[in-house]
Amino acid sequence: MAGKRVTLKDIAERTNYTINTVSRALKDKEDIALETRKKIQRLAKEMGYIENSVAGSLRSGYSKTIAVIVGDISNPHFGIIVKEIEKAARKHRYTIIVLNTEDREELEESAIRTALSKNVDGIIICPSQRSEDNIWFLQRTGVPFVLIGRRFKSIPEFDYVICDDEKGGYLATKYLLDTGHKRILFLNGPLHISSAEERYEGYKKALQEYGVPLDPQLVREPGLIQSETRHLIRSLIEEGVDFTGVFAFNDVIAWETIYMLQKLGYGVPKDYSVIGFDNINARIFSPSPLTSISNSKSKMSRRALDILLKKINESQAGKSGGYREVVDTRLVVRDSTRNSH
Amino acid sequence: MAGKRVTLKDIAERTNYTINTVSRALKDKEDIALETRKKIQRLAKEMGYIENSVAGSLRSGYSKTIAVIVGDISNPHFGIIVKEIEKAARKHRYTIIVLNTEDREELEESAIRTALSKNVDGIIICPSQRSEDNIWFLQRTGVPFVLIGRRFKSIPEFDYVICDDEKGGYLATKYLLDTGHKRILFLNGPLHISSAEERYEGYKKALQEYGVPLDPQLVREPGLIQSETRHLIRSLIEEGVDFTGVFAFNDVIAWETIYMLQKLGYGVPKDYSVIGFDNINARIFSPSPLTSISNSKSKMSRRALDILLKKINESQAGKSGGYREVVDTRLVVRDSTRNSH
DNA sequence: TAATCTTTCTTGAACGTTAATGTTATGATC
DNA sequence: GATCATAACATTAACGTTCAAGAAAGATTA
């Protein structure tokens, strides 16, 4: 049933041209007579030829493939990013391979190795930031790459595209302050991640601007396991910790927070205002729209790809990077916050 | 800076063994002396060797790669499936490449072609079901594949793993009937998709069992664009169409429905009971939990991969498929439905 | 002690493509 | 009519592996 796969050689034999001529004809090269090209192309289609890009890649050195390495594709935030990268890549006739790291260092290393072993032309990676080692390793291989969503601010060698996390943190906090909240709980992500650290900067900046003292008790890192957020909220309420506003590192944590507050008998936004980050499609997970900080994931994805392609082409010309891009963030007010003045 | 990539040849020259010996040593083959293996492996690591799996794949004929082709990875339903497949594949040292079809026939064809050109060992695909052609094409290539989530019931050649859609439709409808609803709005997906068709069967079966006549006015296909659901709900309410229960094709449509009903001043579950499908929010706790039909995505994914690997190995032995698997579905009652007796 | 087996490695070719360079006929140029 | 350019194809080698054999050495057996 399978029927051996058709190769250039098979087409060459049928047409009495050489393999090379067939190859060039199928690529529509100008130095093959138009008529010959048409004839060969027609026959190739007829015979059901499918190019073997593995062989081509081995010979030519490039694979028209880029790797996208993220922590967790099932997280809608990354899901959207991966989708947008794929869409943009397709326009340039690139294929993507997706690798998960679970934000673990070993898996990150093996993901990078896998990508390299597949001869990808470039890599877009959201680094776990457990350490710099894996990225330095990647850098040394000379394969073009771009960080997305997170950066190593002090390492100029690592190009990146991020959103303006500090501004996002600032806008969220400022909005809560503007609407009358003074005690703002910040449920941050792990601080080794640049986005967490920079959103924290924004949080502090806004507090300072409004003369509100920073209360360490109100700055927490519930971590990525979802139940953690719920437990944390419960214990904060039980301990009687005083706050009326919540700024969450992402929308998922925000939803968790709202869920638990409601469960404990409080209203959102009646008793607490909650603001998230990422602006994940408002109603995929809940009918009650969440106030959030919007970071344009499609823009970030497209820019990351553009830069990567530029680096891929430049690296053929022997030049180097220096790309660092910060995409704007903005506040989107919805129903999980209210003015409490 | 780049520093040419280390190959087996480089290691061979340093060690005075042959390329082949080096290759076999790195693969830990028994017929190379243990000591030699260790020595070569150590040096390979030292020199920063990364295997060129493209070359290996060309020679050996298999790539240790499988393609996963879905409509939209940014849809959490597929996001979870892709993630689970990746996780399972990794255990067997397979890499996945992800391709989007946007449920469009041309993109589906080009996705399949791309996958084949990369010499993937197998394909897991959620077919657009716009037609059978692409899948027949795939079948003729002889490359092992498994359908996931959707099936062509009458084509025995196409192996699949789906969830029990009919049972799911039945359970959802039965539950609404059991809790006192007689007028049940069914917001279905496009009928050319098998899961939509089979859930519809379940819906009809439950109605029949309870002696409730089928009202065509209550069976709608709002489509995948989210605003469509909202418009539809609004116009149904405005037209005064009579219903108290809603069974939605997926959780996203369910959320949209709840959102619009609330916007129009109705309560859920006070005035309307709404039930979804996919049980997406099981992972992400949202403020208002949705009653839903749970289909085990991780189980489906794992089974699909198991079957695919089996087919990959069998196809080397020259055997053929015949795998059709239906994973159980069950009802998960949460807060968007209530007993209205 | 010759024959046979093991162990451990080597040899040569092949996978299907593309890059670089060569060849041939044809027509243009002076 | 000799020279040169051009169009259109051919030839050869190479990409980095792995596969199928084979071979040299010592160990084992009859």
From TrEMBL, chains A, B:
A single GO molecular-function term is: DNA-binding transcription factor activity
The highest taxon in the source lineage is: Bacteria
Q: Which SUPFAM superfamilies match?
A: lambda repressor-like DNA-binding domains, Periplasmic binding protein-like I
One Pfam family here: Peripla_BP_1
Kindly state which keywords UniProt assigns to this record, in alphabetical order. Answer: DNA-binding, Transcription, Transcription regulation
- Which residue range or ranges hold the HTH lacI-type domain? 6-60
Q: Which PROSITE patterns match?
A: HTH_LACI_2 (PS50932)
Q: Which InterPro entries match?
A: HTH_LacI, Lambda_DNA-bd_dom_sf, Peripla_BP/Lac1_sug-bd_dom, Peripla_BP_I
The protein's name is LacI family DNA-binding transcriptional regulator
Lineage of the organism: Bacteria, Bacillati, Bacillota, Bacilli, Bacillales
